[in-house]
């Protein structure tokens, strides 16, 4: 199996290199409005944002930042196929301006924006990230009433373009080989993920410290899980806020094509170091899934349960008929492919079926 992965240096408010209705899934984490690390970015896109922050007008700054993201959502509507899905990781922000502390509900504003564009919201996910400190409160400590809950979670918002789901031929290999295990379904499709931990992105030694500071990447487990949940083999996954390429790495491990758009070319240079280990990473990810399933089988049998079905490609039983043809693919090789311009990076990935 072969997949292709292309990354463009450019503004996601105009995804000129992505054709209409050419993407089946979007998995991304945008810069969060009203988080200080992205103030300069939003101000560069709209100087009025900086003016509002200087004036202490949090509401105007919040709306101005989201107005820039709205232009990206317009592009997602264009490039997605009918029935295509958007999985958007976003966190709310807490901030004090003019000595007034409040929360800025980014997830609610994004939900409003997608509904206005005709997307149907689907059930979302909360995942817990590490707290910045041991304190579970903000404000006046032990004395009521002026303490505030510490934000320790982020949202994965899920939207479908249009009212109808995608259709496939009955028994399509691209779907059935991309199946997940029964116990994975029960874990992944829970609305609260307590098993995913946030992580600091490991960037190459010797890189610009400013690049490190601007990285807001989410854990690999999040895009990998979402890609497995909401796409099939042969699908294309887009990340319009590409950053250090975590979504592309996840797509490579999951055996899907991918597209990415990134405003700063320095991040693309970092990614060339990250893909050196993608073969090892993809093998480890696929092997871990298979081994976890076998551990589940052992526990279930110890509890006196039996299995009706056997997997086709692996020596293991499965719970349901739909799991029988599940097949993992690991990265065998990665080659750079010709670029249409200096602002584009491309990779061709050969995948081999994971063997026993």
Keywords:
about 350 residues; alpha/beta; Rossmann fold; ten-stranded mixed β-sheet; two-stranded antiparallel sheet; 11 helices; EC 2.1.1.113
Description:
The protein is of the alpha/beta class and 356 residues long. 33% of the residues lie in helices and 26% in strands. It has one domain (2-288, 326-353): 3-Layer(aba) Sandwich (Rossmann fold), CATH 3.40.50.150. The chain contains eleven helices and 16 strands. It has a ten-stranded mixed β-sheet with strand order 10-6-9-3-2-11-12-1-16-15. Strand 4 and strand 5 (100-104) form a beta hairpin. Helix 1 crosses helix 2 (47-54), helix 2 (47-54) packs antiparallel against helix 3 and helix 8 crosses helix 9 (246-254). The longest helix has 25 residues, at 278-302. It is globular and about 65 Å long. The model is unreliable at 198-209 (pLDDT under 50). Keywords: DNA-binding, Methyltransferase, Restriction system, S-adenosyl-L-methionine, Transferase. Pfam families: N6_N4_Mtase. Residues 23-271 form the DNA methylase N-4/N-6 domain.
- In the CATH hierarchy, what is the superfamily? Vaccinia Virus protein VP39
**Total domains:** 1
Radius of gyration in whole Å, from Cα? 21 Å
How large is the share of residues in beta strands?
25-35%
Strand element count: 16
How many strands, which pairing sense, and closed or not: the largest β-sheet?
A: 10 strands, mixed
